[in-house]
Every structure is written in C-alpha cells, then in structure tokens.
Design goal:
Layout lengths: L2 H23 L5 E11 L4 E9 L4 E8 L7 H6 L5 H13 L2 H4 L4 E7 L4 E7 L12 H17 L11 E2 L2 H12 L7 H17 L8 E4 L8 E3 L8 E3 L6 E4 L2 H6 L6 H19 L5 H20 L7 H18 L5
Parallel strand pairs: 6-10
Antiparallel strand pairs: 1-2, 2-3, 3-5, 4-5, 7-10, 8-9
Length: 337
C-alpha cells in the first residue's frame, strides 16, 4: 500500500472509531492520536493492531479485523466461500449479542460496512496476543471449559435474526464421514485401521446427535480463538472469531476445546469443569453418566469432521486428527474386557 493509501485508510479508521465511540459514550469523542502497531492474520481474516489516544488522554488498544472475504488468508480462501455470510454474522454478534461485561469478550469500538468499496471492518478491543494454544497452565484450560458453559446458557434464547446462523446437523456429519471413506486409499495402512474403527463408531451413534442438547455454539471453540488476559482473575480469557457461531450439538464447543494430546484424566477434568459450571449456573442437574457419553460421542464426530478437511499437501493435519481419533477410541470406546 502506498503512503497516501495508508493515510486514507487511517483517516477512515479514525472516522469509524470516533463515530462508534461517540455513539457508545453519548458524547462527541475525538482521537488525538492513531498509530498502527503491526499486521497479521489472527484467524482466517487479516487483522491490524492500532494504538489510539482519545481527546481526554485515555489510551485505547484496538484491533481492526478486515472482514472482507477476498482479503482472507490463502489457506482460508482455499476452503471457504467468499460470500459475506460469515462477515455479517460476526458483526451481528458484536453489535447485537455479545455482552463484553458478562462474558469478557472484546469490546466493540466501531465498524465500517461498505461492501461496494470493499471496506468491511470490525474495530474491537485488543485483548492481547497470548493465545491459549501456547499456554500450558491447565487451570486456564479448565477456565475455558467453564466459560463455554456460561456462553451456552447466555445464548440459550438467541434467535438467528439477520445473521442467518449456520446449522450443524446429522447430514453434515454423514457427509464428512463419506468424504473420508472416499479417500482412505491415500493414507497408510496403520492410519486406515484407526480411521475405519472411528467411522464404525461414528455410524453407530451419529443419528442420536439430534437427541442431545442443542443450542447456539461458538462453532470453532479452539485454543487458537481464545486469548489469555493476564492480571484479570475475573476475566481470564477472551474469546474471538465469532463468524462461526451456529446452531448445533451443545457439547461441540467442549469437544473442540478438550481435543488434543491430553491424558484421559485431563480431558475428563475439562468435561467435569463444564458440567459443574452448567449445573451451578442453570440450577439444573445433568446426569453425569449421560453427559459423559454424549460428550464422548460428539468428540469423536467432531474429530471426524476436522479430519475431513485434509489435503494431500498437509500431512501434519492428517497425522494430528488420526492421532486424535486413536486417542478417543482408546480412551473412551475401547471394547470391554
């Protein structure tokens, strides 16, 4: 981008921030300073970190998320459509749904929605760079599991509205299994055995997903989408990337956050943290045995779904999710002796 182009962009960002902050605070707000920090890809979309100073001297750390699907990362463009559905969904969540105080999600400072000019910006609080995926403190993973229970209760009465929430149904799960079955010849004999066992289990209980609790879920509640807030005991984590919000099996988010190279004990500890938080906040008792079985099943269905995204060029992805299927079948679906 040329120097004049950067200046024009910063002027538009300044205008969007001043308009958004003025509307939120009920008074005219002007920016004394606005400076770029650095750019990167926070998820699928490009993000820019900005540092602002308001007219009263208040510092403001801002993230500009570019929601233009044509500006997604190369990897994201290869697997996702370039329509505006995901972008509209995320903007709607920040503007109409998310409670930054109650859920500690990033605050919305402003936005710009001009599709004809390709300007689709979300301006939110910069909650920091430390992703949970790079943190080994297990207490924070437990906090993330508990947070997902709070989210599900907070969104239990949410209607789709203009955002047209996606729906993750049985047909989608069956499609993932079919995609994998068609490509079994591309993996090793050892991997094939693991996948076939997982697909057998998948077929046994995929039709029961509709009998599980359903609700509004984040959709990709992975550690890469969670930022750790240091020094904030009551706001330990902040969850990002709301373009994937959807209707689906409620425990899908829990399956996502507890996926990985965990022992059975630690994975179950995360499930227990969710269970206890949900029961405490809802005032309802969830039978542990049934909950445990349903989460186990969703976890396997979810791992099959992630594996379905494989490509021949991404061997690490295949290894990762075949290993996850191996762990799940061994830890939770081993034949009784």
């Amino acid at each position: 981008m040329t120097s004049s182009g950067r200046e024009t962009t910063l002027a538009l960002v300044r205008e969007s921030l001043e308009q958004g902050l003025s509307a939120q605070r009920g008074r005219a707000v002007a920016l004394r300073e606005l400076n770029p920090a650095h750019n990167d890809y926070g998820s699928s979309f490009a993000v820019a970190r900005l540092r602002a100073v308001l007219d009263d001297g208040e510092p403001l750390a801002v993230v500009l998320k570019d929601l233009n699907p044509l500006h997604q990362s190369v990897e994201a463009r290869s697997v996702r459509r370039t329509g505006l559905g995901r972008s509209r969904r995320e903007l709607w969540m920040y503007r109409e749904v998310l409670d930054s105080e109650g859920l500690a999600t990033p605050r919305l400072y402003g936005h710009r929605w001009e599709p004809k000019r390709g300007l689709l910006w979300l301006l939110i609080e910069d909650v920091g760079p430390e992703r949970l995926s790079r943190v080994g403190e297990f207490d924070l993973w437990l906090a993330a599991a508990r947070w997902s229970a709070r989210l599900h209760l907070a969104l239990k009465d949410l209607a789709g509205g203009e955002a047209a929430l996606m729906r993750h149904d049985i047909a989608e799960s069956r499609q993932h299994a079919a995609q994998i079955t068609a490509r079994l010849a591309e993996v090793s004999v050892e991997q094939r055995a693991v996948i076939r066992r997982a697909l057998e289990l998948h077929d046994e209980f995929v039709d029961t997903l509709d009998e599980q609790p359903w609700g509004v879920i984040h959709g990709e509640y992975t550690a890469k989408n969670i930022v750790v807030r240091r020094g904030s005991p009551d706001r330990q984590i902040a969850v990002l990337d709301w373009e994937t919000v959807a209707h689906g099996p409620l425990y899908r988010d829990l399956a996502d956050i507890s996926a990985g190279d965990w022992t059975r004990e630690r994975r179950v500890a995360m499930w227990r943290a969710y269970h206890d938080q949900y029961c405490r906040d809802s005032g309802r008792a969830l039978a542990w045995d049934r909950f445990f079985r349903e989460v186990s099943e969703v976890a396997l269905v979810r791992a099959v779904a992630w594996l379905a995204w494989w490509s021949r060029e991404n061997g690490r992805h295949i290894v990762r999710w075949v290993d996850e299927l191996r762990r799940l079948t061994t830890q939770f679906f081993a034949p009784a002796k």
